[in-house]
Design goal:
The complex is a heterotrimer of chains A (about 250), B (about 260) and C (about 650). Chain A is an alpha+beta fold and about 250 residues long. Chain A is about 40% helix and about 15% strand. Chain A folds into two domains: about 100 residues, Roll (Ubiquitin-like (UB roll)); about 140 residues, Alpha-helical ferredoxin (Fumarate Reductase Iron-sulfur Protein, Chain B, domain 2), CATH 1.10.1060.10. In chain A, the strands form two sheets. Chain A has a five-stranded mixed β-sheet with strand order 2-1-5-3-4. The radius of gyration of chain A is 22 Å and the shape is elongated. Classes of the chains: A alpha+beta (about 250), B mainly alpha (about 260), C alpha/beta (about 650). Bound molecules: flavin-adenine dinucleotide, iron/sulfur cluster (2 copies) and FE2/S2 (inorganic) cluster (2 copies).
């Protein structure tokens, strides 16, 4: 069941880089990360790759295989032909550190910009009551393993470095959606989603959803609903009128 | 894509699969529809073959509409001389243009933004839907409501299609079936809409306090997962219904009557 | 390029937490909340720590599903699971405080699965008398990490608001590995002065000057070939502690989880969560027999079903039936599987069958065990709603660890050094119950953070902080650079594989004196070879170099495990000797303490296990205690236990 595969791995750093070819034995049931490890152990001990769990749970081993953003540890070799040359490249949206390792600090900076969960004042731990159907939507988004494949693939960031300050990317817009749907959160982040996190940049082309290894329906369940919620607040004259009315009433009452 | 600091990989994409197939097919199919619909909309004729009114021309509101096609009256009057389809087309067109699914489809295929996932787009600048005109996409929910009204009208057209060419009730022909399928697909398309999902329940924070709306939301969500399919099927449905009516109106063949 | 002493990046903190798993993050949050400037240092990115892999849940006696549950019952289960080797005080604190820690997570944004009345839902797990594990599907560890990570961010946001800088009070140093703890003071009274390490990204060195260090570096599984642990499980913290003069407790107790994947080879060891059994999955051998009924040990006869019918009834009616033996504590199940395979009744790839497909509907399986479904689908091409899984034991958790004070996590030997989480020992005795780790992390993480903060406050009241000696920095730096400066020596990856093979073959689930002695010989050889490791390439993100440095710790840990295993002449929990197959109450009174000898080897000494106070012994009936305690201990029992 063993055969020799041809790998083309991008090697380099922020100054230069090129593809290097390796011929590596492959055994039954192996994933791309196994092969990268074999290159490390037998041919190139300093080949840099990031990984932790090798079980698709931590989101460390994000890279691109044959141009497709993927987790290296969840890409089975059996999905390729024995004769195929397999190209492995680093994420292309983030600054390169070395070989397959990129600097993903952009994402941590964006995470910090989303105001945290804000429960109602006075609600003591232990007194939280939430129904399963009310938490399910947010639970889906909390499956996120922060592999940042969606951030890497989203063309708003990938093709436009200049948009980085204005656009937080699907992962963090989804975080806003998660909090907006949290049954006990009290903060309104909808205006911020549009004005500070760049929801309007998303043109719902769904590449984030296509690459998400957790199969989260990012676009359908987080981004579009968030857009609709923002419309409620910013672009819907009827609802705006309703709000003015209610405020008036509240003032009078 | 080749911004400073990033890995220096000159290729615009390293994808080895046929990622270009889907956008190409999308362009071909959408363009064919646009060409056909434009021709038909401007033609201003062959849209009524008693008892069938083509969905592209319904409701027919101008005095110039052919006899029998104006069950909803002619509020527009006689000054209007262009094709009556042009009066109403903006609604279904706007609905589809602002549809979240079609947006994805044409942004990707026509505008190449992006042409495929992890395939570099050809534009230097990108502002998405943040400014005019694309910010108008946010009006989709109004078109959705307009779409519902049109669905009602087209459903009315189906009902009155249960007559024979002489106007007697209780009859049905292949045309009735064609209109029925087209209208049904339109309902599925509308009800699976994201704005619909939002309105029926998506905007709620606590489903548990609104059990009925939660049930509706669950239903619409289920439809919504097939929204793209309904988008295409309903498009074909409308085009085919119009084509069928045109054939009858132009006497290319005669309707098959069931009873 | 070797930077000169002055060039080395330096940071001053009150508390440095090594490790960003559940324990480390909770410790850091506490230290920061006590007003201490806190650094969190981790080898991988923030939010990737091994804790993300925990699946089943977090044990906390909230009594949401079964109102009979309370901390006493949880305490009892924990002690039983650990075969009474637990540090009783830790087990008590853990049982008492875990509900508050679970609720606290919820107030920080965690979204656990719910009961119909809106409380946190709890599930059954091996060794727990009532449904007790708070969970989110089968990704509870991820929820814990993300919640704590987001709470750290929340604190940073507050600091940005109040102090103008996100990182004024708490800062994360990701992909930074600590290789040495630095001490200050005379030979016999050395305290923590700081920690030294390198940035993985650039390879440049960094120094943290801090009077208090919390070690929460997690487990040791990467010393074994078949393991469920992530890359980080190299036992760094234990190595750091040993080299700083601290002691390790009961390192022989290593938990082999009964159900790891066995096929394909590439994923061998990856965990199959215990919830599969908690939710109804059963173990079968190649003859289709539910063999666990043949392996119920005497100490558990009273609590487990003896017929399949009773076991099956238990899922729906736990009040009137006993639980099925598939839910025995992990050590029992792991040994049973081992025996079945040895007896030739294993599955094609050397495991046994774990079957949910014939017991639950496909829909229920996908809903309750989504990550298991995907794991098997994507990694093995097996549809668990249709076929049985093949599973076998995998090295999962180390019960032993750094010896600490139960109340504040302080190490007795080194002032200023604290530890919590999997790196610390004592809480779980000889065997950990599933779900008790996640709760352990937050209960003792918080306590260690608090302990460290108090220590710093006291130290500051005295007015002097320990100082890092420049010579120590130079030495630490040189030590780390050796592999890069050695030419044409040993390949670090090969050495690692050899160590893993040795531990798996000779210090595995069933041990004996011969094999352990051989293991120690081999480890000694490996230590010699390790001195000649050489790595190519530069310092920038060089995995070969990283492995070389981690190996130091893995070798120390492996030696500790093998020595302690040789010393303990009985079988108990995560330590099974086929030359001493019985549990011996005399050995229960003995803690084995490892420390670093002057020659760089591990020396071992015996130390009495703290006596369980009468008020806690009163929770058990005497018949049960006779299985664990010596006759002498039993004669001292108070009245209420006498009958
Ligand atoms: C697959 C699996 C499933 C599990 N399921 C459960 C479960 O359902 N319930 C349960 O209770 N328990 C479970 N456990 C056990 C539990 O997950 C672990 O025991 C626990 O997560 C350990 O947490 P920790 O905080 O001690 O350390 P870890 O989460 O292991 O974190 C260690 C941290 O230390 C850092 N570190 C290590 N060395 C260094 C160094 N030299 N310098 C700097 N940083 C360093 C690492 O980067 C990391 O951040 C499971 C374990 C596994 C493997
Ligand atoms: S759907 Fe929006 S966020 Fe997702 S990839 Fe496309 S543009 Fe980016
Ligand atoms: S949403 Fe999906 S793709 Fe994006 S970071 Fe999370 S897990 Fe990765
Ligand atoms: S290594 Fe954790 S997701 Fe691949
Ligand atoms: S989203 Fe397509 S019609 Fe509304």
């Amino acid at each position: 069941m063993t055969y020799d595969a041809t790998f083309r791995v991008w090697r380099g750093d922020d100054e230069e880089g090129e593809f290097a070819d390796y011929t590596v034995p492959v055994n039954e049931g192996e994933v791309v990360l196994d092969i990268i490890h074999r290159i490390q152990a037998t041919q190139q001990p300093d080949l840099a790759v990031r990984w932790n769990c090798k079980a698709g749970k931590c989101g460390s081993c994000s890279a691109e295989v044959n141009g497709k953003p993927r987790l290296l540890c969840m890409t089975r070799m059996s999905t390729f032909l024995d004769t195929e040359t397999i190209t492995v490249t680093p994420l292309r949206t983030f600054p390169i550190i070395k070989d397959l390792v990129t600097d993903v600090s952009f994402n941590y900076e964006k995470a910090r910009k989303v105001p945290s969960f804000t429960p109602p004042p006075g609600l003591e731990p232990g007194d939280y009551r939430m129904q399963q159907i009310d938490v399910e939507r947010s639970q889906e988004f909390r499956k996120c393993i922060e592999c940042f494949l969606c951030q890497n693939t989203c063309h708003v960031l990938r093709d436009h470095e200049e948009n980085k300050p204005k656009f937080s990317g699907p992962r963090f817009l989804m975080r806003i959606a998660e909090l907006d749907m949290h049954p006990l959160d009290t903060l309104d982040r909808k205006k911020a989603a549009q004005d500070e996190h760049g929801l309007g940049y998303c043109n719902i082309t769904k590449c984030c959803t296509e690459v998400c290894p957790e199969h989260i329906k990012i676009t359908d369940n987080a981004l579009i609903p968030l857009k609709e919620r923002v419309i409620d607040e910013k672009y819907d004259p009827l609802l705006a009128l309703g709000r003015v009315f209610r405020k008036d009433k509240a003032k009078k009452g | 894509m080749l911004s400073p600091g990033r890995a220096r990989i000159p290729q615009k994409t390293l994808r080895s699969d046929r990622w270009w197939l889907l956008p190409t097919v999308t362009v071909i199919v959408l363009l064919s529809f646009v060409v056909y619909a434009t021709w038909r909309a401007f033609e201003g004729a062959y849209y009524y073959a008693s008892p069938y009114l083509s969905p592209l021309y319904s409701p027919c509101l101008a005095t110039s509409c052919v006899p029998g096609s104006t069950d909803l009256g002619t509020p527009i009057g006689s000054w209007y001389v262009l094709s009556p389809a042009l009066l109403i087309l903006v609604f279904p067109l706007g609905f589809r243009m602002t549809c979240y699914y079609y947006r994805k489809a044409y942004y990707r295929s026509f505008w190449g933004s992006p042409p495929g996932c992890a395939v570099a787009e050809p534009h230097k600048k990108y502002t998405g839907e943040t400014r005019f005109p694309l910010i108008l996409q946010n009006s989709h929910r109004w078109f959705f409501i307009a779409g519902l009204i049109f669905n009602c009208i087209l459903t009315f057209d189906v009902i009155i299609a249960f007559r024979n060419p002489e106007g007697q009730w209780g009859h049905m022909g292949l045309g009735t079936l064609v209109l029925l399928i087209s209208a049904t697909l339109l309902w599925f398309y509308s009800l699976s809409c994201h704005a619909c999902k939002h309105i029926v329940g998506g905007r709620l924070k606590h489903f548990s306090r609104h059990p009925v709306r939660y049930r509706l939301w669950t239903l619409v969500s289920r439809l919504n997962s097939s929204h793209s399919m309904f988008a295409w099927l309903s498009l074909f449905g409308v085009a085919f219904a119009d084509f069928y009516v045109r054939c009858l109106a132009a006497d290319w063949f005669t309707d098959i009557r069931f009873f | 390029m070797t930077e000169t002493q002055q060039d080395i990046e330096r940071h001053q903190y009150d508390v440095v937490v090594i490790g960003a798993g559940g324990a480390g993050l909770r410790a850091a949050i506490e230290a920061r909340s006590q007003g201490k400037r806190t650094a969190i240092i981790c080898k991988s990115l923030f939010g990737k720590a091994h804790t993300v892999m925990a699946e089943g849940g977090m044990a906390a006696a909230m009594g949401n599903v079964n109102s009979h549950d309370n901390w006493q019952v949880h305490f009892r289960d924990t002690m039983r699971g650990g075969k009474f080797m637990n540090n009783w005080r830790m087990a008590e604190l853990h049982a008492q405080e875990s509900p508050a820690r679970a609720w606290e997570l919820e107030s920080w944004g965690a979204l656990f699965d719910r009961t119909p009345d809106g409380k946190i839902s709890q599930r059954n797990f091996g060794g727990h008398e009532y449904p007790r594990l708070a969970h989110v599907g089968d990704r509870t560890g991820l929820e814990m990490i993300r919640t704590l990570q987001q709470e750290v961010v929340a604190l940073q946001q507050a600091d940005a608001r109040d102090l103008g800088d996100y990182e004024a009070m708490i800062k994360v140093f990701p992909e930074c590995t600590i290789t040495q703890l630095l001490l200050d003071g005379p030979e016999d009274d050395r305290r923590i002065a700081g920690a030294f390490g390198y940035w993985r990204e650039s390879g440049s060195f960094v120094l943290f000057e801090a009077p208090a260090v919390v070690i929460s570096t997690g487990g040791i599984g990467k010393s074994f070939k078949v393991t469920s642990n992530s890359w980080e499980g190299t036992g760094d913290g234990l190595g750091l502690a040993l080299r700083a003069g601290a002691t390790l407790l009961n390192m022989e107790f290593v938990q082999f989880h009964p159900t790891g994947m066995v096929w394909p080879l590439s994923v061998k060891g990856i965990l199959v969560t215990e919830s599969v059994r908690g939710d109804g999955g059963v173990l079968k051998n190649s003859e289709g027999r539910r063999f666990m009924f043949d392996y119920i040990p005497d100490v558990f006869k009273a609590q487990y079903a003896t017929t399949e019918e009773e076991g099956d009834r238990w899922y729906t009616d736990p009040e009137n039936n006993r639980r099925p033996p598939e839910l025995l504590p992990r050590d029992e199940v792991a040994r049973a599987i081992n025996s079945e395979v040895k007896a030739g009744r294993g599955s094609p790839h050397g495991g046994v069958f774990l079957d949910v497909a014939s017991r639950l509907s496909a829909e229920v399986i996908r809903k309750k065990l989504p990550s298991m479904y995907h794991q098997f689908m994507e990694l093995a091409g097996v549809d668990i709603t249709k076929e049985a899984m093949e599973v076998g034991p995998t090295c999962h958790y180390v019960m032993g660890g750094i010896e600490v004070d139960p109340d504040n996590g302080a190490t007795p030997a080194v002032p200023g050094l604290f530890s919590a989480g999997e790196a610390a020992g004592g809480m779980h005795g000889s065997n950990r119950l599933g779900g008790n780790s996640l709760s352990d992390l937050v209960v003792f993480g918080r306590r260690a953070g608090l302990g460290a903060a108090h220590y710093v406050t006291e130290l500051d009241a005295e007015g002097s902080r320990p100082r890092v000696a420049e010579a120590d920095i130079a030495r630490a730096q040189q030590a780390d650079l050796v592999p890069l400066e050695t030419d044409a020596g040993e390949n670090p990856y090969e050495l690692h594989q050899d160590l893993q093979q040795t531990m798996n073959d000779l210090v595995g689930i069933i041990r004996n004196a011969d094999e352990l002695r051989r293991a120690l010989e081999r480890i000694a050889e490996l230590k010699q070879r390790a001195k000649r490791i050489s790595v190519t390439g530069g310092r920038r993100y060089n995995p070969g170099w990283h492995v070389a440095l981690d190996l130091k710790n893995m070798l120390l840990v492996s030696e500790s495990i093998a020595r302690a295993a040789l010393e303990r002449q009985e079988s108990r929990g995560g330590h099974t000797r086929d030359d001493f197959p019985k549990m011996d109450p005399k050995w229960r009174r003995v803690n084995l303490i490892c420390s670093l000898a002057a020659d760089g080897g591990i020396s071992i000494r015996r130390q009495p296990l703290p006596q369980i106070p009468d008020r806690l012994l009163a929770l058990f009936d005497r018949v049960e205690l006779t299985k664990y305690l010596t006759a002498e201990e039993l004669s001292h029992l108070p009245e209420e236990n006498q009958q």
